[in-house]
Amino acid sequence: MARVVVDVMLKPEILDPQGQAVQRALPRLGYQGISDVRQGKRFELEVEGPVDDAALTRIREMAETFLANTVIEDFAVKVES
Amino acid sequence: MARVVVDVMLKPEILDPQGQAVQRALPRLGYQGISDVRQGKRFELEVEGPVDDAALTRIREMAETFLANTVIEDFAVKVES
Amino acid sequence: MTLDTVSHAAGTPETALPWAELGLKEDEYERIREILGRRPTGAELAMYSVMWSEHCSYKSSKVHLKQFGEKAPETDALLVGIGENAGVVDVGQGYAVTFKVESHNHPSYIEPYQGAATGVGGIVRDILAMGARPVAVMDPLRFGAADHPDTKRVLPGVVAGIGGYGNCLGLPNIGGEVVFDPCYQGNPLVNALCVGVMKHEDIHLAKASGAGNKVILYGARTGGDGIGGVSVLASETFDSTKPAKRPAVQVGDPFQEKLLIECTLEIFREDLVAGIQDLGGAGLSCATSELASAGSGGMRVELDTVPLRDSSLSPEEILMSESQERMCAIVEPGKVDRFLEICEKWDVIATVIGEVTEGEQLEIFWHGDKIVDVPPRSVAHEGPTYHRPYARPDWQDALQADDAGALPRPESGEELRKHVLQVVASPNQASKSWITDQYDRFVQGNTVLAQPEDAGMVRIDEESNLGVAVSTDGNGRYTKLDPYTGAQLALAESYRNVAAAGAKPLAVSDCLNFGSPEDPAVMWQFAEATRGLADACLELGTPVTGGNVSLYNQTGETAIHPTPVVAVLGVIDDVHRRTPMGFAEDGQLIYLLGDTRDELGGSAWSQVVHDHLGGLPPRVDLERERLLAEILVAASRDGMIDAAHDLSDGGLAQALTESCLKGGHGARIVVPDSIDPFVLLFSESAGRAIVTVPRSEEVRFNDMCGARGLPVTRIGIVDGDGIDVQGQFVLPLAELREAHEATIPALLA
Amino acid sequence: MTVRIGVVTFPGTLDDRDTQRAVRIAGAEPVPLWHRDKDLKQAEAIVLPGGFSYGDYLRAGAISRFSPVMEAVVAAARDGMPVLGICNGFQLLTETHLLPGAMLRNNHLHFVCRDQKLRVENAGTAWTADYTAGQEISIPLKNIDGRYVADERTLDELEAEGRVAFRYAGWNPNGSLRDIAGIANAAGNVVGLMPHPEHAVEPLIGTGGTDGLGFFTSILRKLVNV
Ligand SMILES: Nc1ncnc2c1ncn2[C@@H]1O[C@H](COP(=O)(O)OP(=O)(O)O)[C@@H](O)[C@H]1O
Ligand SMILES: [Mg+2]
């Protein structure tokens, strides 16, 4: 069984209130030197069968139509060892 | 400027209804062969200055005390090129 | 990149600008050149194009909306009328209430969660800008067919967005509507209403006066949200290296808005602003030009001081950005420090971006260079006006001739029972608690009534128990059959709902959702509906205080049903006298108030049982509505009734079901000889309600109705654990409940 | 002398004014505390009210936990001051580890607002003395992150020590383990629960019941009797 990870992040030009809240809190907690924080989602999919090109194409399609709304989000698909 | 990614996932023994909802929806959308889905968070931190051991130690500490609640979540810290 | 300054524009008259891509017509562009005496700069073009859009200028609708002012009833209750961010109504004891409905239809189709969330955010800022503390929200919604796969995408997202934003602001959601119809498949309607409360002396207006006063922008940083259109200016004409695509959808930050609310209320308490305006559609273009236009002088703005989220934004984009959670205030110089201090307390970014001037022009500078120099009124208040052609569509006659009265009717008690179950279980008539349970209705601790009651009601004074009630209603099916009557029915129903709750109806806000104004048939529907609504408001004595128009709700050639949504605000002196809808006590008598006629055109029964839309909607009798409301309010004040429920779609069958299930008591109904049981149960005649009367009050109640000339019929008694229509059928409450409550979760959960 | 009960407001707190009203109705004096306050202004007990502090971004209570006022509250709680966390306040108490476990997204993933039945399991805490053990009360519930979780050992410990203060009755609205709606610390001075007693203190308003008033009268009686 292989694991495929889909990372979904808000597009850079879109406001990310969650990331901003984290970033604004960091100095108060004593952490300096982080100039930006973005918060997104990580999906770990356990894939039955081989993760070949066909499977990846389908997962990319699933990410594009379902896991992400590409009006406001970008996504990346990665195979984990 | 370097990017450090912190992935935060629910511990395996904790019920993840968001991941389950995704998994349940997949067959309806025509995707077969995904035996499990877990949904977590991904933080992208833009770090000013060098990402050396000291910086990573501090980020790990930040993840442990703040970005994740280790009662329920595991985390992983990665440097992105 | 060369900056297109005013002097540059004056020296380069031949430069072509992308006015057509920005949605301007050739004659509109010519008018801009005429107003300015030169070609506009890119920034000026950006401002005019967005402010002269249908959405901001009401160019197709304003010739019709005028009637709301022209036909406004005489009333002392209206403190601020149409034209401001929202109207303000005097509710007594020194209190004023402001309320308004707005639409966020299109964005909610593209990104349901964020589209709906930012819709709530926008209307809340409008209410806040009047000087009021927002105290409740409502959400009239329309979706495509309940079983259509895309409804499963749109509805849960919209509901989560409304809840996610409103719950996080701490605003109780006290009512709304959910209606399904295939006509909304590609055009869901997401309307949002907000109510706010203030003291009379706290009313604030959107105007910039007093030369030397500072212009302060506060709230979120400005980003590249919602400037899809204007990016053509940046990318094609002036600088081709920029990203051409900017998102048309904005992401809301309800936490930021909550801070903005508390911060602004504290600023009001210390009387620190001379004028204030929220930033909504058209962002800074709108706020600066409207403030300046309504004020006495001019305004000067240093655009490069605006705090940005994205440093690559061009001046045109900054002017057009629709980033959420921002406000603009006019502040006397001596009060600026305290203003900024309060913002700092609430972690709200605030920046002086300009000042009010002696002059008459709105001047905007970018790093010292003048890029805008316009008469503000020409941008904000003197946009184009269209007299669009309209014509009664040729299909209207055939539609009205297709009489629902001719449909086959149930012929036995058993069949009647089946139809009752079918109607109360249909998606439009079924319980919406799966949806409304996702909204906080208790926060602020003043909610007296909330969904599924006829109207939402909140207490506004803890000492005196003064309260206000609001209802929103609209019926696209009725309005399709007859737009003039349909709009009046929407008002009548909303008015009746408020009265059924025990409150005296005072004022109206509306959201007019229609198809394309370029289609003469749609324009006719719009003209008829506004005429109907204005006439009815005059007759009922309830002025329109403000509202919103949403056009172009159509897919290809097919428009949605014309859907005017009407909100009525009422006042109740003591919320202890409110009337709930649930039957609370066995033995109380059930009275039907008003006349029941054979009226089934556009009815729920015709839709559910026969999938039919045709004929005429129920008749409107506004004099009767007014009488009914007076009786409902008087009976509640004098303690003659314990429950009341308005009759509308689904008729008596639906009303009885809801009152029985809410109260957990059954009803024994005796069909009067004069009326057919089917008509009694399913007719949707307007001007009706059911009430329960304790036996001790029966004589007094009958005397009051008799003296005032309202027909009332005793139709039964609260009793048992089912609806027993004698001689026809018995329906156990458990079976009714299952039918009524299982539908929506089964479709959506 | 009136009893002073502190009610903390964080940016994003929503139910602070309701909580102050409930304290007043019970007969005590509400003392507003701001998240930047470093001292507790002679309050004798503290309520952390509901809402979405810092938007509940990251996790409910995760950011407000680091505010100056919480340093003071945590220290006072360790010294025995009565602290009640309602909803967001409960989430905050778990984030500060004054109470064990954690709160997660409801198992059905929706915000849920309803009248909820609870069984009072422990009527011996500072905040529950006016109830009787086993009593069923009905108060509003409204949250999206209300699913209580802890590991088995912690749960067993809570049960064994009688620290499960409230259980959902009739219906578990969010998948909380062992139907837990609220818990107490070992000393019984710190109590957290998800439902909102401050919304059930006046007839007519909200769900119309007054079952929540007992929280505020319990603490008042305890402090007066000290
Ligand atoms: N259907 C309508 N009925 C009554 N007034 C309306 C209607 N549509 C718009 N208005 C009024 O026209 C003015 C401008 O509306 P709008 O531009 O939507 O205001 P805002 O930008 O503050 O939301 C407001 O006073 C609004 O109340
Ligand atoms: Mg406005």
TrEMBL record, chains A, B:
Keywords: ATP-binding, Cytoplasm, Ligase, Nucleotide-binding, Purine biosynthesis. One of its GO terms (molecular function) is phosphoribosylformylglycinamidine synthase activity. It is an enzyme of class 6 (ligase). It holds the Pfam family PurS. It is found in: Cytoplasm. This is Phosphoribosylformylglycinamidine synthase subunit PurS. It comes from Streptomyces meridianus. PANTHER family: PHOSPHORIBOSYLFORMYLGLYCINAMIDINE SYNTHASE SUBUNIT PURS (PTHR34696).
Automatic annotation (TrEMBL), chain C:
Mg(2+) 1 binds at E102, N548. Pfam families: AIRS, AIRS_C, FGAR-AT_linker. ATP binds at Y58, K100, D510, G547. Belongs to the FGAMS family. It is found in: Cytoplasm. This is Phosphoribosylformylglycinamidine synthase subunit PurL. Monomer. Part of the FGAM synthase complex composed of 1 PurL, 1 PurQ and 2 PurS subunits. The active site is at H55, H104 (proton acceptor). GO terms for molecular function: phosphoribosylformylglycinamidine synthase activity. Its EC number is 6.3.5.3. It catalyses: N(2)-formyl-N(1)-(5-phospho-beta-D-ribosyl)glycinamide + L-glutamine + ATP + H2O = 2-formamido-N(1)-(5-O-phospho-beta-D-ribosyl)acetamidine + L-glutamate + ADP + phosphate + H(+). Substrate binds at S103, H104, N105, H106, R125, Q250, E322, S323, Q324, S550. Its main location: cytoplasm. Part of the phosphoribosylformylglycinamidine synthase complex involved in the purines biosynthetic pathway. Catalyzes the ATP-dependent conversion of formylglycinamide ribonucleotide (FGAR) and glutamine to yield formylglycinamidine ribonucleotide (FGAM) and glutamate. The FGAM synthase complex is composed of three subunits. PurQ produces an ammonia molecule by converting glutamine to glutamate. PurL transfers the ammonia molecule to FGAR to form FGAM in an ATP-dependent manner. PANTHER family: PHOSPHORIBOSYLFORMYLGLYCINAMIDINE SYNTHASE SUBUNIT PURL (PTHR43555:SF1). It comes from Streptomyces meridianus. Keywords: ATP-binding, Cytoplasm, Ligase, Magnesium, Metal-binding, Nucleotide-binding, Purine biosynthesis. Pathway: Purine metabolism; IMP biosynthesis via de novo pathway; 5-amino-1-(5-phospho-D-ribosyl)imidazole from N(2)-formyl-N(1)-(5-phospho-D-ribosyl)glycinamide: step 1/2. Residues 83-198, 453-572 form the PurM-like N-terminal domain. Residues 20-59 form the Phosphoribosylformylglycinamidine synthase linker domain. InterPro entries: PRibForGlyAmidine_synth_PurL, PurL_linker, PurM-like_C_dom, PurM-like_C_sf, PurM-like_N, PurM-like_N_sf. NCBIfam families: FGAM_synth_II, PRK01213.1. Mg(2+) 2 binds at D126, D278. Residues 211-366, 586-722 form the PurM-like C-terminal domain.
From TrEMBL, chain D:
Pfam families: GATase_5 (PF13507). It comes from the Bacteria. The active site is at C87, H196, E198. Pathway: Purine metabolism; IMP biosynthesis via de novo pathway; 5-amino-1-(5-phospho-D-ribosyl)imidazole from N(2)-formyl-N(1)-(5-phospho-D-ribosyl)glycinamide: step 1/2. Its EC number is 6.3.5.3, 3.5.1.2. InterPro entries: Class_I_gatase-like, PRibForGlyAmidine_synth_PurQ. Coiled coil: none annotated. It is found in: Cytoplasm. It catalyses: L-glutamine + H2O = L-glutamate + NH4(+); N(2)-formyl-N(1)-(5-phospho-beta-D-ribosyl)glycinamide + L-glutamine + ATP + H2O = 2-formamido-N(1)-(5-O-phospho-beta-D-ribosyl)acetamidine + L-glutamate + ADP + phosphate + H(+). The keyword Cytoplasm applies. PROSITE patterns: GATASE_TYPE_1 (PS51273). Keywords: ATP-binding, Cytoplasm, Glutamine amidotransferase, Hydrolase, Ligase, Nucleotide-binding, Purine biosynthesis. Part of the phosphoribosylformylglycinamidine synthase complex involved in the purines biosynthetic pathway. Catalyzes the ATP-dependent conversion of formylglycinamide ribonucleotide (FGAR) and glutamine to yield formylglycinamidine ribonucleotide (FGAM) and glutamate. The FGAM synthase complex is composed of three subunits. PurQ produces an ammonia molecule by converting glutamine to glutamate. PurL transfers the ammonia molecule to FGAR to form FGAM in an ATP-dependent manner. Part of the FGAM synthase complex composed of 1 PurL, 1 PurQ and 2 PurS subunits. This is Phosphoribosylformylglycinamidine synthase subunit PurQ. The lineage of its organism: Bacteria, Bacillati, Actinomycetota, Actinomycetes, Kitasatosporales.
